[in-house]
Each structure stands twice: as C-alpha cells, then as structure tokens.
Fold:
Amino acid sequence: MRLATRLQGLQANVFADMDRAKQAAVAAGLPLCDLSLGSSDLPVPPHVVAAIQESLQNSRSFGYTLFGATADFRRAIAQWLQTKFAVTVDPETEVLPLIGSQEGTGHLPLAVLEPGEVALLQNPGYPSHYGGVALAGGVPHGLELRPEHGFLPQWDSIPKDVLARARLLVLSYPHNPTAAIAPPGFWEEAVAFCRRYDLILAHDFPYVDFVLDGELPPSVLSVDRDRERSVEFFSLSKSYHMGGLRVGFAVGNRELIAALRQVKAAVDFNQYRGILQGAIAALTGPQDHLQQTRQILRERRDAAVAAFRAIGWEVPVPAATMYLWVPLPGGQPSLGFCQDLVKTTGVALSPGSGFGSAGEGYVRLALVQPPAVLQAAIAAIGKFR
Ligand SMILES: Cc1ncc(COP(=O)(O)O)c(C=O)c1O
Structure:
C-alpha cells in the first residue's frame, strides 16, 4: 500500500522497540519493574475523583464538549494562572483546553509552520515536539543540550541559514529527559532571541510543580508580558497524577491560541465533560498534595542516586522533574543496553537515544516507584553489568 511520505519524517520509535523488549521479559516470566515511563504511581487527589464521579451520575454530561462548553474550565485555568504566576489572561481568547499538552505541542506546527520552515527543538527533547514538526512538513533543527552548558541551548551555535528559515522555537524546562532547570535570566534571553529572529516561542511546561530544590519556575508569560509571540503548554498529568485522563491546556498569544483552536476544530471535540470537571476541581481545589509529591520525589531521587553510587555509577542529583538522567558507563549504545537489561532483569529504563541523537550515552530512570523498589532495581542493574 502506498502511504504518505510524511510518515518517513517521523522518528524511528525506540520506545516501540523497548515495548517489545518489555513484552518479551513478561512472556519469559520476569516480574516487570517499569521505570521507563513518566506515568505517576501516586493517587489523583480525592476531590478530583469525586468531581468526576459526580459527573458520571449526570446523564447530561456525556454529550460533545464544544469550545463554548469548556468556559468553566477556561475560567479555572485563568484563575489558576493568576494565583500561581500573577499573570492575567483572557479565558475567551488566550486559553485553550487540550487533550493533554502533547496534543497541543503536536498540533502547534500545523498551525504555524509552512512546509520547509524550520523549528528549533531541543536535542535531547520530547519526541512529540519532533513528530508535530514532521507531520506539518517542517524541518526540525536540534539544539544540542550538553552537560557542560547546563543542558541549555547555545544560541550562537545555530547556523545563520537555519535561522533565516526558522519560524518556531520549542523549549521545555524543567526538562525531560535531562532534568535540567532554566537559570534566572534564561527566559529573558530566549524571548529576546525570538524577537530578534522573529520566532514563535512555545514553552512546554508540564513539570512546573516539580522543582525539587528551589523556587517555582517562572511562566514565559511573565517575561513576554505583552504576549507578543509566546504560547505555554501545561498538563494535569504530572502535578495532579492525571496522565491517563488526558487533560492539559495552552495559554498565550491570542493569534496563536486561535490558530491552534482552528487546527483542533478539524480534529477533536475536546474530552468528556466529567474529566473537565475533575480538572477544574484540581486547579481550583487544595494544592497541598504538591508539597507531598515533591517530598516523595526527593526521597525517591536521593535513594536512587545513593543506590547508583553504591554500584559505582556517578549520577548527577537532579534539581527537578521525576527523572534521573544517568550517564551510561562504558559507552555502550543505550537502546541495546535497555533491551538487554529488561530481558535479563525485568527492569525497564528509557534509552537516551529515544530523545534524540544527543541523548545517546544516557538512560532515563523515572521515579515512579517507592525507594525500596528503586533500590532493588538499581542493585539488579549493578549485577547485570
Ligand atoms: C516535556 C513533556 N511534554 C508533554 C508531556 C505529555 O504531557 P500530557 O500527558 O499532558 O500530554 C510529557 C510527558 O511525559 C513531557 O515530558
């Protein structure tokens, strides 16, 4: 069958290879310890579950949820942004509900890129950033993130001819997979860079609440105050442990929001109203679980780093996110290492190469199990080597 050539632009998916390796481990009778996905094991706050349960009893909650019907959620988002960042947005024109933030960052290039235009993306970076650009016929240009630069892009490394064709810069800090945070002044620099080269700035911000050592990171909208060229993507998957419910949102420049809404209108009708009710409860209800989540992640992080040190691996202590970005000793290819590891021990990690060429030489471990489980998994890695 002849399929669309644009599929060729989609990255070879090493996560599909890992999925097969995990299945082989299970088929061989190994107990799977899956530390390869950033899928929270922690409970959704009870008031969120209650709001969804209540919706389920309401027979009128099951219809399509067109834009007009998301007004309460959009208002809750605007209120949340005001409380958290002292940023004021118009819920009608500067807010857009999403079926997970990945849906938004994946669709954005269709709204802003002409075929052949360049999107500047982090390498390593989140795979859907690349996928969205490929589907839009854009040209991804990876900004290599190196430890010696704090995993920050080096603006002066971008060739002039690439910049001339660039239309979009996608950034994400706290960063998956490297767990890096943006230092003070970084966003001012990024916004100034985008002004200078007339770029749209998209900030993917799902780990907003997961700075483990330090302050709440700033919203790009508190730097690009006039919302001249920025759009920011948030998720309820991490902060509220709602990954499977698929809910997130975009806020920012009204032209960008309208354009993204136009693309979405061709594709989806938003999600079930009960999920939006849950999301409203999450954003407007008590936020004390965030402190607890950060404490849990700190304990897991510290236990995991100590366990790696005990097997002789030097792992930097991440200041943010729910991941360890682990340099692989011995320079072996990360996919092969992760495939062999899961088939031998049942411990699944993510190969760094799945996040881009500059991720090679690393594996990512998600802190989605209690300390004792992480310690046992890392001890198994020590024996496997
Ligand atoms: C950088 C980044 N963006 C987006 C997502 C997905 O978020 P959502 O569940 O809201 O689609 C993730 C999930 O791991 C992520 O790490």
